[in-house]
Amino acid sequence: MAILEFENSSALDLALTEKVSGLLRAAIESEGQASLVVSGGRTPVGFFHLLSQQDLDWSKVTVILADERWVDADHEASNEKLVRENLLINEAHRAHYLALKNSAGNAVEGEAECQRQLASVGRFTVVILGMGDDGHTASLFPESEALARGLDMHSGRDCIAVTPLYAPHQRMSMTLPRLLHSREVIVHISGASKQQVLANANAGNDVMELPIRAVLQQQLTPVNIYWAR
């Protein structure tokens, strides 16, 4: 695991854009297609805008969210809305978007369809994850009833429905094994508080306490951390 530190978010966004566009371009050239898993929140917005302007064959790129709230795509809380307005623009408007949210009435009922959709996508090119102050990543929350299933490397599940204890809206989250089925995982964080969470994560091994540990401490998939001061 490598930690790349940047003086500010702008410097990080530039470096991350170069890294990710290079990975996507290489995958397109070698495999004819590429896949990019992203996360919601405000942290990646600047990166999204820069990446959307990159000159590559976006028609061969599939964009997927690591997790999604079970709300309509035009809802203010929708990660899809965030991605469509900030990433799937400019050159990247030609990318294919695969939604985790489907027409089912709730996330539990939507699991089977989401599983079918994700099964159609092979190994991801790159997965970009955020990290909460509580140590969650995607929608793998501490104390959640779904956490053990989400972290189970032998579950055979690509996604799980999650009802957070302390956050609104049901979620659909990729599981740990699906997130790690990638050529590379990048954890994108900013600020001193996230640095402290990262230090706490590295100081222990209880993945139920801080689920991000399951990503940081595994040996299957290379992980790089991009952190802006």
How would you summarize what this structure contains?
The chain has helices at 9-31, 45-52, 79-86, 107-119, 147-151, 176-180, 192-202, 212-216; strands spanning 2-6, 34-38, 61-65, 67-69, 96-98, 126-129, 159-162, 171-174, 185-190, 223-228. The chain has 229 residues and is of the alpha/beta class. The protein has one domain (2-228): Rossmann fold.
Strand-helix topology:
Blueprint: E1 2-6, H1 9-31, E2 34-38, H2 45-52, E3 61-65, E4 67-69, H3 79-86, E5 96-98, H4 107-119, E6 126-129, H5 147-151, E7 159-162, E8 171-174, H6 176-180, E9 185-190, H7 192-202, H8 212-216, E10 223-228
Parallel strand pairs: 1-10, 2-3, 2-6, 3-5, 6-9, 9-10
Antiparallel strand pairs: 4-8, 7-8
Helix pairs in contact: 1-2
Structure overview:
This protein has eight helices and ten strands. The strands form two sheets. Strands 1-10-9-6-2-3-5 form a seven-stranded parallel β-sheet, with helices on both faces. A three-stranded antiparallel β-sheet has the order 4-8-7. It is α/β, with parallel strands linked by helices and 229 residues long. The chain has a single domain, classed as 3-Layer(aba) Sandwich (Rossmann fold), CATH 3.40.50.1360. Helix 2 links the parallel strand 2 (34-38) and strand 3.
- pLDDT under 50 segments (min length 5)? none
- Note the total helix count: 8
Helix content: 25-40%
Mean pLDDT: 97
The proportion of residues in beta strands is 15-25%
Oligomer: single chain
Order of helices and strands: EHEHEEHEHEHEEHEHHE
In CATH, the architecture is: 3-Layer(aba) Sandwich
Largest beta-sheet details: 7 strands, parallel
Q: What's the CATH topology name?
A: Rossmann fold
Rg (C-alpha, Å): 16 Å
Strand order of the largest sheet: 1-10-9-6-2-3-5
CATH top level label: Alpha Beta
How many domains?
1
